């Protein structure tokens, strides 16, 4: 099983450009999440989807949008990238309180 | 509301010594507690979890943690550190019936030969 697959692994954007981070899981999990990881700040929740067809804001949603395309896929979109969005982005999925399965991350640099 | 405090952003131990990484939590309802490990340039991997069964939880790679409600703690231990344990460790909390997880800021473990 692949688990949680994120694409791309690396990306450099110019300020103002847009992009979509893709995430897919093959574990039939209901819930999916997007986190960002910054030094000294741990992981902060951007958006989550408790089940197919629903999405909710997390701790730091400004500047992002999400789409739960189907049960497998949960994408994160930056409409107009800013340097403050330079970070490592992780997608995760879970089923009830079993704990998260994480993807390997996307390293995004906005210049 | 829920939160996690990890004491010590960096911890150094000698190979073969006891590993103790501290975590205290705050939760208004009975918590679920987790420890994750992150190796360089990788995603996080679940080490162990507490979900209201046994208070002493055993995980992978010889790690264990004990849930102490009176101290609101969930410290991670390993009797003998190995070089391969060098990584960053995250404590996390969620509430029963509530799947969102709140992470601590992480503790980087250095193992000295």
Q: Would you kindly provide a written description of the structure presented here, covering whatever features stand out?
A:
Chain A has 111 residues and is mostly beta strands. Chain A is 0% helix and 52% strand. Chain A contains no helices and eleven strands. In chain A, the strands form two sheets. In chain A, strands 2, 4, 5, 6, 9, 10 and 11 form a seven-stranded mixed sheet that branches. In chain A, strands 1-3-8-7 form a four-stranded antiparallel sheet, with no helix packed on it. Chain A is globular, with a radius of gyration of 13 Å. Chain A starts with a strand and ends with a strand. The model of chain A has no long low-confidence stretch (mean pLDDT 94). By secondary structure, chain B is mainly beta. In chain B, 0% of the residues lie in helices and 58% in strands. Chain B has no helices and eleven strands. In chain B, strands 2, 4, 5, 9, 10 and 11 form a six-stranded mixed sheet that branches. Chain B has a five-stranded antiparallel sheet with strand order 1-3-8-7-6, with no helix packed on it. In chain B, strand 9 and strand 10 form a beta hairpin. The model of chain B has no long low-confidence stretch (mean pLDDT 92). The chains are: A mainly beta (111), B mainly beta (113).
Q: Key features?
A:
heterodimer, A: 111 residues, mainly beta, seven-stranded mixed β-sheet, 52% strand, globular, B: 113 residues, 58% strand
Average pLDDT of chain B, rounded to a whole number, is: 92
Strand-residue proportion of chain B? over 45%
Question: What is the number of strand segments of chain B?
Answer: 11
Instruction: State the share of residues found in helices of chain A, binned by percent.
Output: under 10%
The ordered string of helix (H) and strand (E) elements of chain B is EEEEEEEEEEE
Mean pLDDT of chain A: 94
Which ranges of chain A are low-confidence, i.e. pLDDT below 50, for 5 or more consecutive residues?
Answer: none
Q: Any idea what the radius of gyration of chain B is? A: 13 Å
Distance between the termini of chain A: 36 Å
Rg over C-alpha atoms of chain A, rounded to the nearest angstrom:
13 Å
The multimeric state of the shown protein is: heterodimer
Following the backbone from N to C, one meets helices and strands of chain A in this order, namely EEEEEEEEEEE
């Amino acid at each position: 099983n692949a688990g949680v697959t994120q694409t791309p692994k690396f990306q450099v954007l110019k300020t103002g450009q847009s992009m979509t981070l893709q995430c897919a899981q093959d574990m039939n999990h209901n819930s999916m999440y997007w986190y960002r990881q910054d030094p000294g700040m741990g992981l902060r929740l951007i958006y989550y989807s408790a089940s197919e067809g629903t999405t909710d804001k997390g701790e730091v949603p400004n500047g992002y949008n999400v789409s739960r395309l189907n049960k497998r896929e949960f994408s994160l979109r930056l409409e107009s990238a800013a340097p403050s969005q330079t970070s490592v982005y992780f997608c995760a999925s879970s089923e009830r309180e079993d704990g998260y399965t994480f993807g390997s991350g996307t390293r995004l640099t906005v210049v | 509301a829920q939160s996690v405090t990890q004491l010590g952003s960096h911890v150094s131990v000698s190979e073969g010594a006891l590993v103790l990484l501290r975590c205290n939590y705050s939760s208004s309802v009975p918590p679920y507690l987790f420890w994750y490990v992150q190796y360089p340039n990788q995603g996080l991997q679940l080490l162990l979890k507490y979900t209201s069964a046994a208070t002493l939880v055993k995980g992978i790679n010889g790690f264990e943690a004990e849930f102490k409600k009176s101290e609101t703690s969930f410290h991670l231990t390993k009797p003998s550190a190995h070089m391969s344990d060098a990584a960053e460790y995250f404590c996390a909390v969620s509430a029963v019936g509530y799947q969102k997880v709140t992470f601590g800021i992480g503790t980087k473990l250095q193992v000295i030969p």
